[in-house]
């Protein structure tokens, strides 16, 4: 099956994806959404690790996990054993015709197969080659494997996530999503786009060295700046904000409400809404820094007043006043929310056998070159024969020989 006619800003770009699990596949999915032809290389008989990361599993005979489905649309899967010399040679031939290679093997792991940056640059000088690892290609931890949970802890993220020490349930807490992997995938896509622009201007390819730890440390953002520029060590504060008050959850009579008051004008409006207008003139609370320093005193007044409201009534009153407030939605609620429906974020695709798969779409709405949804997440190796014929010109006899030798495989 030939690649359907792609549209989008990356139409005509070929990505050879040697990555698995999440950071690399998330990156290549972004590129695929924007029109790139992504060829996903998987180990015969094994496939991407996340295919087994269930339950839940897709009930279509493949037993692919829902986890795998979230990060692998707009790709074609070929199963090639790179440990066999002929398999590594096939991948080199793909790379010679590709614009981008993405890999997340351990440092130096691909050199033994002649698939490292230096080897592939020798045959494709303008290649953009992106290596994603836990700790990067240099430094004392370069040979250490990196996993999202480990990186959340090592990066300091867990030191500012969770309830404070001493409170019931207090202690370090990971984020409920693999944010280090996801964010690294996004930075990888950004970096690849920058490298492609550089190549367009100069004809020069390059190596992108991207680490999960580096990415998450860079995303400490305001918390890191509080230490670097203010000498303040950030701590776990639960749902409180370190410098913006009130920016937290409050208990109403029948449930919790989220309040995100971001400036002094909004604070005055919110106090008026609560019947506490005098607090906006109190020198302890009138400006943001004062509210931060006198947080406990302010909460002593606000909490009992908010506790008398019904949650839905307070949210409605805040929305009518143009103030940011809302509730904590569960996943089924948010995916059925009218706003998400209006934005068209949930898409239904069909696998090659007709099995429906629902995916969350590309969130940016480009007016001239919108994201497209051409391939549902493929079964492992289902495109091997078609892509080898289309991209490398192999005939059926040669493909059959490679299948018999175990160099390649068809669909699991």
From TrEMBL:
It comes from Novosphingobium taihuense. GO terms for molecular function: CoA-transferase activity. Signal peptide: none annotated. It comes from the Bacteria. Gene3D superfamilies: Crotonobetainyl-coa:carnitine coa-transferase, domain 1 (3.40.50.10540), formyl-coa transferase, domain 3 (3.30.1540.10). This is Crotonobetainyl-CoA:carnitine CoA-transferase CaiB-like acyl-CoA transferase. Pfam families: CoA_transf_3. Keywords: Transferase.
């Amino acid at each position: 099956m030939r690649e359907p006619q792609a549209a989008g800003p990356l139409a005509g770009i070929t990505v050879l994806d040697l990555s698995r699990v999440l950071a690399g596949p998330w990156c290549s999915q972004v590129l695929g959404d924007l029109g790139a032809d992504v060829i996903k290389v998987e180990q015969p008989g094994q496939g991407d690790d996340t295919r087994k990361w269930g339950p839940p599993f897709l009930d279509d005979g493949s037993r692919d996990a829902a986890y795998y489905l979230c990060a692998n649309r707009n790709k074609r899967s070929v199963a090639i054993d790179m440990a066999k010399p002929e398999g590594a040679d096939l991948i080199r031939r793909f790379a010679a015709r590709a614009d981008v290679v993405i890999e997340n093997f351990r440092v130096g792991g691909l050199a033994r197969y002649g698939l490292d940056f230096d080897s592939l640059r020798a045959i494709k000088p303008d290649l953009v080659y992106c290596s994603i690892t836990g700790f990067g290609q240099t430094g004392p931890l370069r040979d250490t494997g990196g996993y999202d949970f480990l990186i959340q802890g090592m990066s300091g993220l867990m030191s500012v996530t969770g309830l404070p020490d001493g409170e019931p349930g207090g202690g370090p807490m990971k984020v409920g999503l693999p944010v280090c992997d996801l964010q690294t995938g996004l930075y990888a896509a950004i970096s690849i786009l920058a490298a492609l622009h550089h190549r367009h201007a100069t004809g020069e390819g390059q190596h992108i060295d991207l680490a999960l730890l580096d990415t998450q440390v860079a995303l400490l953002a305001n918390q890191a700046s509080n230490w670097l520029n203010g000498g303040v060590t950030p701590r776990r504060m639960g749902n409180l904000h370190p410098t913006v008050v009130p920016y937290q959850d409050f208990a109403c009579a029948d449930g919790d409400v989220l309040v995100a008051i971001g400036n002094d004008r909004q604070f005055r409006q919110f106090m008026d809404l609560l019947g506490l207008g005098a607090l906006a003139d109190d020198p302890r609370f009138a400006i943001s820094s004062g509210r931060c320093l006198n947080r406990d005193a302010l909460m002593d007044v606000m909490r009992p007043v908010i506790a008398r409201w019904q949650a839905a009534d307070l949210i409605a009153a805040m929305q009518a006043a143009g103030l940011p407030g809302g509730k904590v939605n569960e996943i089924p609620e948010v995916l059925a929310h009218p706003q998400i429906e209006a934005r068209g974020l949930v898409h239904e695709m069909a696998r090659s056998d007709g099995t429906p798969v629902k995916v969350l779409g590309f969130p940016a709405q480009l007016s001239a070159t919108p994201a497209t949804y051409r391939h549902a997440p493929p079964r492992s190796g289902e495109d091997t024969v078609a892509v080898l014929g289309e991209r490398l010109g192999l005939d059926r006899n040669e493909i059959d020989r490679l299948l018999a030798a175990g160099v390649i495989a068809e669909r699991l």
